[in-house]
Every structure is written in structure tokens, then in C-alpha cells.
Specification:
19 helices; three-stranded antiparallel beta sheet; 66% helix; 5 strands; 435 residues; mainly alpha; two-stranded parallel sheet
Length: 435
């Protein structure tokens, strides 16, 4: 039977529990705001996730080790095959000449560095607690640390560095530095980043042309902002080129062999996904398929397209159809599709489709909210210092005599001003009067 005494006792117990929890919650919230705590805990979390992964990967790491060993013994590299990565890999051999220790060690360094960079980027975009949660989500996803080849993980580092440079008050120096990083990553890490680099360069060109048309005197400053990072990229590329075992004119055929091998392997892998009856290895037995489909092996992408555009179109459409599954794997390490978007097998489940729908709805709601508040962030995006946003006036504004006495002759303005953007903090509205 219900009794008032029982209800009052339960309410009292809840209040006491909240009183005990409140100080702990406040302390945890304060710790989340501290930079050292966020970085220390994300490193511990990533180390815990990696603990026990002491097996060597079956990908191309052994091939890259040969080049890395050349850097260790003779300071030589291969300019066509990710020289920045192999020089980093080979440098760790100076700490331990044991191949196993250096290989596991360079993987740990890359993954831990990625966790730190992701957290740094998230802290520039989100409040500290949410930033830590986003970085933790990255850290626990196997797709972000269990790659078949470590070079693919290493290639993410310059991308994160470029974004860290870009996040902040827009300026030619930021864009120039980011373009230099993208160009260096294209030349020295992964050549396929050329597409992203060119698109970013075109966006920068459009932005700077608009600035120069408004203020022609800024041309010299803009040229310096872009020229200096690109010169540094050229110098680094030249240094690694002088250490390369392969140079011009042999380098041209060397780069072609690399490209044609990639075309052969990726086409064969996609073909096997579409035609399970083809049971050969796409890595070592793709030449026969290329001859049967295109009439010859060792073809570049453009050559294969000219010989059989129907087959290449089918290949491209197939890869585009895998994008939704690829996004699911990035977010949830699983997919609802029937075909893996990766070279390795991935987890499949119906729950991924539900989680994907929820994610799309949340993102759509966020974009609607962002568009509704566009007057707050578009001036910052254009690099303007400040903008005034009128606030709704109260129905019966109350006169505050204390404020009038504190600032004679200064009427209380019923507006809230958008502060000049701080590169290290998200935009916040500040008003002269609380509501």
C-alpha cells in the first residue's frame, strides 16, 4: 500500500545520492577541461586498445622495410614509394636494429600520434568533454589502428596536421601552410592525394583572387604566405630525391610501373567482388585478367579506359556504390551491406543500418540548426572581425538603476555582440544582459 512516508524517504535518499554525486561530477568536469588530463587519458586508452597486438601485419610492410633498412644503413630511399614514411621507419632502426621491435614500435608511434592529433583537432572544434569523446571513439575503432599496412595510417598524419593549421581565423598564411602540407603529402607519402590537393588549391585560388580584386596591395603578402610553405616542401622533396636510389630518367618508368601495378590490382580486386567465380589472387594474378579484359597488361588508368571504357565504368560505379558501406565502417567498424568496402573482411549486422539512419537524422538536424544561425558564423568564415546580432527585446524591459549608476550616460543596449573569433575556442555569444 502506498504511504507518504515511503515516498518522502525515497525522495530523501535520491537527494542524498545527488549530493554525493554532485562534487564528483563537478571534479570530473573540471578534469575534462584540463589539457594534460585529456591527452594523458586518450594516450592511456589508445595504449590499452593496442595492448596485445604484437603480430606483424601481412600487408606491404615487409616491402617498405627493405627501403627503410636502406635508409638506416646507407641513408638511401625510393622517391616513388612513400619516402617520408620509409625514412621515418628506417630512423627507428637506430633505436633498435631488431626488425620486429622497429616494426611494432613504428606502428605504435603512428597510432598514438594519430590519437593525439585527432584530440587536438576535436578540441579546436568542440567543447573539451565532447572533443575527448570524439577522440575516444576514434581510438577504439579497429579500422583506425588495425590497417593492413602502416603506410596507410601514416598518410593520415599530414591530413590532420593540415586541418589543425586551417582551424582558426582564416588567413592566407593558414591556407598556404595547409597547401604546403597537402603538396608534401602528395609527393612524399601517397600520390593519390593529388586529387584532394588540386581541389584545395583551386579553393585557395578562388579565395585569394577575391581578396586581391578588393585590395590589390595584398598580392605580395599572399604570394609570400603561399610561396614560403611550398618552397619548404620543394626543399624537403629535393633532399629525399638526392637520397633516392632511382632518379630521372629511370624514375619515369619506375613511377609508371607503380601506377600500372596499382591499376591491375585494384581492378582485379573489384572484379572478384563482382564475380565470385573468379578465384585468382588480385595481388599476384591480375595480369591474366587485364589481358582478357583490355588486351594487354601493364596499362595505366587512361590507357585501360581507352581500350575498354565499359569495363572501367563498371569498375568506377562499383566503387562508388561502396561509399555508404565505407562510411559505416569508418563510424561503426561494421556495415549493413553484403560486400566489404575494405580489402579485409568486416563485421556485418542489421543494427548498422539503424545506427546509420540515426546518424543521418542527427546530422540533418545539425545542418538545419547551423543554417538557422548562419548570421553568427558566416562573418567568421569570411574572416571579419565582429558582427552585431540583435536579440529579442523583452516584453517589459526592467530598468536597472545599479547599471545606470555604474556607467552614467551609457544606456543598456538590448543586443548581443559576436566576439572576434578566437582561433583556440569555438564561437560564443556574449550579451550585456542575462536572460
Amino acid at each position: 500500500m502506498w504511504s507518504p512516508e515511503g515516498t518522502d524517504g525515497a525522495r530523501t535518499s535520491r537527494e542524498q545520492a545527488l549530493k554525493l554525486i554532485a562534487p564528483i561530477s563537478a571534479r570530473l568536469g573540471a578534469l575534462a577541461e584540463r589539457t594534460w588530463f585529456s591527452y594523458a587519458t586518450i594516450l592511456l586508452l589508445q595504449a590499452k586498445v593496442l595492448w596485445g597486438m604484437w603480430l606483424l601485419t601481412p600487408g606491404d610492410t615487409s616491402r617498405y622495410f627493405v627501403t627503410a633498412y636502406g635508409w638506416y644503413r646507407h641513408w638511401t630511399t625510393d622517391i616513388a614509394w612513400s619516402p617520408l614514411y620509409t625514412s621515418f621507419y628506417g630512423s627507428l632502426l637506430h633505436l633498435s636494429s631488431d626488425a620486429y621491435v622497429a616494426t611494432i614500435g613504428h606502428r605504435l608511434v603512428i597510432v598514438l600520434a594519430l590519437a593525439v592529433l585527432v584530440l587536438a583537432l576535436m578540441r579546436r572544434l568542440l567543447p573539451p568533454a565532447l572533443a575527448w569523446l570524439a577522440a575516444a571513439w576514434w581510438a577504439i575503432m579497429p579500422v583506425n589502428y588495425a590497417a593492413v599496412s602502416e603506410v596507410h595510417l601514416f598518410a593520415v598524419i599530414p591530413v590532420l596536421l593540415a586541418w589543425l593549421v586551417l582551424v582558426g581565423k582564416p588567413s592566407p598564411w593558414r591556407r598556404g601552410a595547409a597547401l604546403g602540407i597537402f603538396a608534401g603529402a602528395t609527393l612524399l607519402v601517397r600520390n593519390e592525394m593529388l586529387v584532394a590537393t588540386v581541389l584545395f588549391a583551386l579553393a585557395c585560388l578562388a579565395s585569394e583572387l577575391r581578396t586581391v580584386l578588393r585590395a590589390p596591395r595584398t598580392l605580395r603578402k599572399i604570394g609570400l604566405a603561399y610561396g614560403l610553405p611550398l618552397v619548404l616542401t620543394v626543399l624537403l622533396t629535393g633532399f629525399l630525391y638526392t637520397a633516392s636510389r632511382v632518379r630521372f630518367p629511370e624514375l619515369s618508368s619506375h613511377l609508371r610501373d607503380k601506377h600500372t601495378l596499382n591499376v591491375c590490382q585494384v581492378y582485379a580486386f573489384g572484379y572478384r567482388q563482382r564475380h565470385p567465380e573468379w578465384t585468382f589472387s588480385p595481388w599476384s594474378e591480375c595480369d591474366a585478367l587485364m589481358r582478357a579484359t583490355f588486351g594487354s597488361a601493364g596499362l595505366s588508368f587512361s590507357e585501360a579506359w581507352r581500350r575498354n571504357s565499359v569495363a572501367m565504368s563498371e569498375h568506377l560505379v562499383w566503387n562508388l556504390s561502396l561509399i555508404p558501406s565505407g562510411l559505416q565502417v569508418l563510424l561503426f567498424n561494421a556495415t549493413s551491406g553484403q560486400v566489404s568496402p575494405d580489402y579485409s573482411r568486416v563485421v556485418r549486422g542489421w543494427w548498422v543500418a539503424v545506427a546509420s539512419v540515426v546518424s543521418v537524422v542527427v546530422c540533418a538536424a545539425g545542418f538545419v540548426r547551423l543554417y538557422a544561425r548562419r548570421r553568427e558564423w558566416t562573418p567568421w568564415f569570411r574572416g571579419e572581425e565582429a558582427v552585431a546580432v540583435p536579440a529579442r527585446a523583452p516584453s517589459a524591459p526592467a530598468r536597472d538603476d545599479r547599471l545606470q549608476r555604474a556607467a552614467p550616460g551609457a544606456p543598456l543596449r538590448e543586443t548581443c555582440a559576436l566576439r572576434a573569433p578566437d582561433p583556440s575556442a569555438p564561437l560564443r555569444l556574449s550579451g550585456s544582459r542575462a536572460r
